[in-house]
Design brief:
The chain is of the alpha/beta class. The protein has helices spanning 34-42, 57-66, 76-79, 89-100, 113-145, 154-166, 174-207, 209-214, 222-232, 241-248, 272-286, 296-303, 308-329, 341-349, and strands spanning 5-9, 14-20, 26-33, 48-52, 70-74, 252-254, 263-266.
Length: 350
């Protein structure tokens, strides 16, 4: 019998596969290595293949697609409801095969090599930033134990580090002074690596057409534009801007029953790194001159009745929708005439 649908449970070296016929009956069950899997799929007719969107899925998905198969990647949380009985590798593969056939299932587009490269750069930079933050916090803690405190902000501490290490009158033991010198050197090396990766991203952003268009959107710079392209490509996976902002977790969680809607805080689902970048971009807009923005009056009105963090998230939501529209339509951002507060609120509700 012909295999119509295949579900693959991914692993590092071993893969479990379930094949279904046109009636949904299991007619194939295999445990194989990567090379054995690709050899097997190369010798069967084109089929619908489903996998969870996880590490290694994009590479294997591209390889299977090159063999003529229709490959779909599914977010893991959408596969879980289809798992029957106890959890094991074959049951997971069967659940994937069931889920991939659903007409209203949400899928993840396979990333290109360029997208994966951009994603790798952002992940390296994010790790380096976290490492730098940890170094700074440790330096502050050591100094505070000796009664030396500095105001918030790494710039201020960095400008005083050389003087701290050279000041013999401070209550610093030789051992602690040596540790601080090591941390200071590690800080400078990490800072240099962050600048190198950031420069690489800026070069890519200046050369990529989509990134250049995105940078015309208020609050969107090289970091946000490259991270957005790396995450969603051309944005075609979303039917409208609200779906994209919902994927970012920028819209309220809904707990409604009995016809009574109840909205809570933002869901914080999806790509937390990209969501954080959009919120940083929104904060940057909030401290600038607002008259040049069409939604400047709306931001001012919202600030008068909402917390600053709520305002930043609302602006990030608006920027995400605008960026998605620019990416999908392939057009430059066009600044519209300044809108009234009522019009802005109406557009947000829409």
């Amino acid at each position: 019998m012909k295999i119509c649908t295949i579900g693959i449970d991914l692993g590092k070296t071993i893969f479990h596969m379930i094949g279904l016929d046109e009636h949904g009956e299991v007619i194939a069950k295999k445990r194989c290595s990567r090379s054995q899997l690709l050899a097997y799929t190369a010798n069967i007719p084109a089929a619908l293949i489903g996998m969870e969107a996880c590490c290694g899925a994009h590479h294997l998905g591209a390889a299977l697609a090159s063999q003529g198969h229709q490959v779909r990647l599914i977010p893991p949380q959408f596969v879980k409801p289809f798992v029957k009985s106890n959890k094991n590798d074959y049951n997971d593969a069967e659940a994937i095969a069931e889920a991939v056939q659903r007409p209203r299932m949400r899928f993840v587009p396979i990333k290109t090599n360029d997208q994966l490269d951009l994603q790798a750069l952002h992940r390296v930079r994010d790790r380096l930033v976290r490492r730098r933050t940890g170094i700074i916090n440790q330096i502050r803690a050591f100094l505070l134990e000796r009664g030396i405190a500095f105001r918030a902000g790494r710039v201020y501490l960095r400008s005083h580090m050389a003087a701290i290490l050279e000041d013999a009158e401070l209550n610093l033991s030789p051992l602690l002074r040596g540790l601080l010198e090591q941390l200071w050197e590690e800080w400078k090396i990490t800072e240099s690596r962050i600048e190198e990766v950031t420069d690489q991203l800026e070069v890519i952003a200046d050369q990529d057409t989509s990134c250049k268009r995105l940078q015309g959107v208020p609050g969107v710079g090289p970091l946000v534009s490259t991270a957005l392209v790396a995450a969603i490509g051309n944005g075609s996976a979303f039917a409208k801007g609200r779906e994209f902002s919902a994927w970012l977790g920028l819209i309220p969680r809904q707990v409604s029953t009995g016809g009574k809607p109840k909205l809570l805080g933002i869901s914080k689902r999806g790509n937390s790194y990209l969501r954080r970048l959009f919120i940083h971009g929104a904060r940057a807009i909030l401290i600038r001159e607002r008259k040049k923005y069409a939604f400047g009056g709306w931001m001012t009105h919202l600030e008068s009745r909402a917390h600053a963090n709520v305002v930043a998230v609302a602006v990030a939501n608006k920027l995400a929708r605008i960026a998605w529209a620019v990416l999908v339509k392939g057009e430059n951002y066009r600044q519209t005439p300044t809108l009234s507060v009522n019009n802005c609120e109406g557009n947000m509700a829409a």
